[in-house]
Amino acid sequence: MPETDPVSTENTDHVEPPQPTVLFVCARNAGRSQMADAFLSELAGDRVRVHSAGPQPGERINPLVVQAMAEVGIDLSGRTPTQLTDAAVGESDVVVTTSGADACTTLPGQDHEDWPVEDVAGKTLAEVRAIRDDIRVRVELLAARLAPTSGPGER
């Protein structure tokens, strides 16, 4: 009588990596963290869960941020700033602050990055565009690290 292998014979060649959760934080969640959230959501698709928040959320997204992002095809007009909570931090694998490392407390085992990105408050549209472009480059590097594509053209 032939022996059967107790190990599963299912195809395990392709195992989906765990989907990391990224939290972007800036003071009011009305500019930098919203742009970073939108760029990573667009670049990584469903390979990364993305959220943004701020310890003192503003009433609305900065209108120049909405305009600058619309110029690159991203609509932020329906978004509103979100309050930073301990739960949001606790559920995140990566926390990126754009307004100083003291904006939130990270937990052991979390990846924390602090991006020295200028605040958009009081800036001109040209300055907001430069900040947007800086954030896009940083997000592209983060996306490549967290959610690499399998091949050309894949998202």
Give the secondary structure arrangement, pairings included.
Elements: E1 21-25, H1 32-44, E2 49-53, H2 63-70, H3 86-90, E3 94-97, E4 111-114, H4 125-146
Parallel strand pairs: 1-2, 1-3, 3-4
Helix pairs in contact: 1-4, 2-4
Textual characterization of the structure:
It is a single chain. By secondary structure, the protein is of the alpha/beta class. It contains four helices and four strands. It has a four-stranded parallel β-sheet, covered by helices on one side. Helix 1 (32-44) crosses helix 4 (125-146).
Which strand order do you get reading across the main beta sheet?
2-1-3-4
Q: Structural class of the helices, strands and pairings? A: alpha/beta
Largest sheet: 4 strands, parallel
Order of helices and strands: EHEHHEEH
Regions with pLDDT < 50 over 5+ consecutive residues?
151-155
% residues in beta strands: 5-15%
User: Domains counted in the coordinates: how many?
Assistant: 1
Corresponding CATH superfamily: Response regulator
Helix content: 25-40%
> What is the CA–CA distance across the termini?
49 Å
| CATH level 3 topology | Rossmann fold
In total, how many beta strands? 4
Mean pLDDT: 86
Number of helices: 4
